[in-house]
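Mods, move this if it's the wrong board.
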Amino acid sequence: MNYAFPPAPVITLDAMSSKPFPVRRIFCLAHNYPESGREAVKPAEPGFFLKPAGAILQNNAVLPYPPGTGALCPEAEMVVALHKGGRNIPADKVDHEYVFGYAVGLDMTLRDALDHAIAQGLPWDKAKSFDHSSPCSAITPEFYAGNIASGRIELKVNGEVRQSGNVADMLWKVPETVHYLSTRMELFPGDLIYTDSSGLAGPVFQGDVIEATVAGLEPLIITIG
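Not the wrong board. Structure tokens:
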């Protein structure tokens, strides 16, 4: 087929002992961990926002410091990669039939833009969906990792621990999250779900090295350029 201009290349992530994983969309959960010092209260519905596939940044890459901000903040998250989609997906089928594997991701946020958007009731796109805002490690397939329902998440900046939590503390677990999303829109192979973070890590600056880990998965390391 002839197009008006060459179509964009497919965004992919490496996958252990597998062919490259083509990324379609990025779903990001919000408020999916208990707030520090407060009793865990599961929301009636999970909050989420979307990022384009082009927001992916490969492991061991340099993230250029974005313009127009003084508050670039990372959040370490477990990422769920789907290789099967559909509507109204049963929660009890998710782990073994729909999940391709897991990875470590960073939801990079322009905190000053996010605070302004929340105060003014504006969309979060400017704060969340900028270039390179979704660094991600290679995917560990489910048949290697198993179904990850617990495991420590940690974020270090220049070797200093800034964030620490456990996947087990998620309020909306992976199976019910996938089920919920599939009741609101059709899911597709290649969709990624960033499952939120267990706290704030504070701002990072040019020259900082960020290391994000989830127990059992390949670490994610990026440098702020």
